[in-house]
């Protein structure tokens, strides 16, 4: 919302609500599904898209599960976002990761998604795109041809911002920013957006967020 305010001059209280969505811990399939729905409504002038790692469970139910979370009994029968993960869901996911999961396939599928994302951006004619890597494995992929890819990884930034309290009450690593850090991110993204030129498509950029 801080970024929307800087770009439009209108605050949330004035009715300017940022378009978008977030699915706690979900895989890129949820991002893809949400993006296609948004594009049916209207093509945005600016797209800021967060990329999670390739190991998350693909699901039409936006399950935020991976090989680590299915072993965390603290999450069983606990609502996360709009989802309540039952014991059966955790058992099914655990069996999938134990007997069926293929890391090579997931990496291949992630690459195909990023290639498709370039095609979607080009076809829709989205003028400005910022790619934000949430976790470390995204930087292993080549940057998208359309848009700027942030060199800094959000997870690592979170650990640096909150290194004195690297675990949340549930025992999970910090993975989301609080208001001061979100405003710092908004300021940096605003500068990147207003100074964007088409020649920057396909480049990697460091916003020096730890030095601000």
Could you give the order of strands across the largest sheet? 1-4-5-6
Instruction: Characterize the overall form.
Output: globular
Task: Give the radius of gyration.
Answer: 18 Å
H-E string: HHEEEHHEEHHE
Helix content: 25-40%
Could you describe the largest sheet, including whether it forms a barrel? Answer: 4 strands, parallel
Give the overall average pLDDT: 83
Q: Name the poorly predicted regions.
A: none
Number of strands: 6
What portion of residues belong to β-strands?
A: 5-15%
For the terminal residues, how far apart are their CA atoms? Answer: 20 Å
Question: Quaternary arrangement of the chains shown?
Answer: single chain
Question: How many structural domains does the protein architecture include?
Answer: 1
Q: Can you tell me about this structure?
A:
The chain is built from 6 helices and 6 strands, in the order ααβββααββααβ. It has 212 residues and is of the alpha/beta class. It has one domain. The strands form 2 sheets. The protein has a 4-stranded parallel β-sheet with strand order 1-4-5-6, with no helix packed on it. Strands 2-3 form a two-stranded antiparallel ribbon. Helix 1 (2-8) runs parallel beside helix 6 and helix 2 runs parallel beside helix 4. The longest helix is centred in the middle third of the chain and has 22 residues, at 103-124.
């Amino acid at each position: 919302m801080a970024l929307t305010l800087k770009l439009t001059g209108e605050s949330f209280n004035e009715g300017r609500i940022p378009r978008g969505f977030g699915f706690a811990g979900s895989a890129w399939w949820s991002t893809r599904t949400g993006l296609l729905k948004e594009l049916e409504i209207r093509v945005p002038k600016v797209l800021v898209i967060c990329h999670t790692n390739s190991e998350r469970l693909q699901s039409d139910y936006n399950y935020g599960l991976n090989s680590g979370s299915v072993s965390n009994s603290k999450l069983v029968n606990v609502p996360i976002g709009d989802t309540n993960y039952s014991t059966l869901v955790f058992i099914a996911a655990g069996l999938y990761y134990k007997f069926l999961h293929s890391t090579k396939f997931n990496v291949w599928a992630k690459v195909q998604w990023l290639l498709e994302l370039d095609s979607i951006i080009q076809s829709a004619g989205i003028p400005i795109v910022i790619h934000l890597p949430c976790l470390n494995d995204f930087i292993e992929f080549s940057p998208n041809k359309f848009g700027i890819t942030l060199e800094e990884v959000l997870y690592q930034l979170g650990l640096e911002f909150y290194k004195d309290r690297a675990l949340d009450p549930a025992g999970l690593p910090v993975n989301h920013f609080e208001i001061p850090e979100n405003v710092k991110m908004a300021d940096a993204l605003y500068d990147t957006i207003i100074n964007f030129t088409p020649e920057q498509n396909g480049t990697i950029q460091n916003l020096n967020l730890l030095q601000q």
